[in-house]
Amino acid sequence: MIFENYLKDGKTWLHELCTYLGIDDEQKASRIFRAVLHAIRDRIQPGEAIHLGAQLPIIWKGIYFDGFSLHEPVRIRHEDEWLEFIRSKDSGADQADFPTLDHAYYAFQDVMSFLRDHISEGQYQQIAQALHSEITVPA
Fold first, then answer.
1. Fewer CB within 10 Å: C terminus or N terminus of the chain?
2. How far is CA 132 from CA 43, 72, 128, 129, in A?
3. Which Pfam families match (predicted)?
C-alpha cells in the first residue's frame, strides 16, 4: 500500500507538470523534468542539491539522485551555456525535447515555476540564487 502512495504522489506531480509545460505527453514531461532537475543538481552545491532532493516525492527522489555524486558545482556563466547544459542532460532525446535553445529556455522556466509552487520558498530562493545572475529564473 505504501508503494502505491509513492507512485500516486509521483504521478500527481507529473500530471501537474504537464500542465505547467503545456503538453500531454507524460514521457516527454518526465524526460524534461529529469533533465532540468539533473542540471540544477549538478550546478548547485551538493548540500543544496541534497536539500532540494529531500523535498521531492519519493519516486522523483530516486530519479533525481540517480548518478549523483558529491562534486564541485559545474561552472556556468552564460544563459546559452546553461541551456546547452540542460540539453546535455536529456539522455539522447535532446533533439526531440529541446530542438532549440528556446525550447530548453521555456522548459527550464516552466519547471522552475512548477518547483516554486511545490517546494519551500526558502529552498526555491536558494536554488535561484545559486544558479547565476545571468540565468533568468522566475521570481
1. N
2. 9, 15, 8, 6
3. DUF2267 (PF10025)
Q: pLDDT band at 48, cuts 50/70/90?
A: very high
pLDDT tens digits, residue range 61-111? 999 999 898 889 988 888 899 999 999 998 766 578 999 999 999 999 999
Position 133 scores a pLDDT of 65
**pTM of the predicted protein model:** 0.91
CA distance 76 to 78: 6
Element (H, E) at 1: none
Element (H, E) at 131: helix 121-131
For residues 130 and 73, what is the distance between their CA atoms, to the nearest angstrom? 10
Domains assigned to the chain: 2-131 (1.10.490.110)
For 28, the enclosing helix (H) or strand (E) is helix 26-43
